[in-house]
Fold this protein.
Amino acid sequence: MMRLLFIIISGILLFSPCPASAGPSPSDFEQGKQLFLSGNYLEARQYLDKAFRADPANPDINFHLGRAAFELGDYEGALMAFDRVLIMDPAATRVKLEIARCHLRLGFKEMAKQYFREVLATNPPEPVWKNIENYLAAIEAEDRRHLFTGALTLGVNWDDNVYQSPVADTILGIQLTGPTARPKSDRIYDSTVVFNHVYLFEEPRLSWKTTLTNYNGLYENQQDLDVYYFALGSGPVWKTEAFLWNNNMIVKYIDVEHDRYLGAFGFASALTVPAGLMLLNFGGRLEEKNNYQDPFRDATNYMINFNPVLVAGANRLSANFFKERENSAAKAYAYDRIGWALQYEREFSEDISGFASFGLQKSDYQGVDPFFLATRADTIKEFKAGAAKLLWQSKSSHRNLSSQLVYTHLDSDANIDIYTYRKNVISLSLTMGF
């Protein structure tokens, strides 16, 4: 009986159809490669790690393992994987490119440049060598410690009251005479050169900025007003995402009609803080002035200012509030001054903009004027309007040429009539930025 049962069961198993096979499952390498191509680098690395342990000498596995590690920010791990590929195939150009990228991310710029240049030497396809050229240019820019910028402005001005002659031609019953008695107009040709040098320290937030400024104003007729101005400022700049803080020592020198007129030295500080759509600018300056022609005007000058700027699209609204004090050797020349100005600017197109501003400053002097026997006080109102046009710009935007047309009206009212005057100036200029 048992024998018969065994024969029946064996026959059933022998003649029954076999179950369908599920087929071979994808390898760890293939799964890791698919996950990498889909952007799932974390899971891809897990499968590629398994494939690497099973076949550590496989160059394809090591290459994709290095790519996954690079995308995850593990540049040391990526470099180890790529180095294994390079040992097996020293001429692997694509691997050298990936090794260069790893060295660059790790901060080893010289090693990165070496590998980039080795790839360039193989005459790779155009997209590859263009990409390498971009990498090399970026490295060069980062390594550059000295940055130079500047601007040259040439202008002509029409001034209808160059001496700021008073409105009245009789002061204290005395008829004024001489070249300054009545308003005289003149044409002034001026030039301004601004040259900036910035040195970048290893600490990326710290730099040292030096600015040299030279202004020359030459009058067509009233040449006794010719002025030559020089200023040098130099000091550290601290820049973070939260603020920009610029500090510098300053030296100034002024000649009038080729004679020494004024020398000054001091310290200035400026802090810029972004606040949403606004920039908040705070500044201060301390100067010691030496008046070569009148020692009684030697003075210590203090000034603080606050300059908020609001930018909304093509519109820019700014204000400037300041307080100034000058303590001179003679009290008649010492003063306290406060002022403010509002300015609106608008970009009408990529190359045309315009602005208008209105400002006021009020000065109260500290001592009695010995000639007029009164303590001077005056208020000056200023209105300005102008337009600028970009005429040319290089492809790199490092150089440009622009023109400016500006109208200025000054209205001074004083308790001493000789300081009450009106003045209009029209200025046309060209500026080359570099």
Notes: The longest helix spans residues 126-143. The chain has two domains: 26-142, 146-433. The chain is about 25% helix and 50% strand.
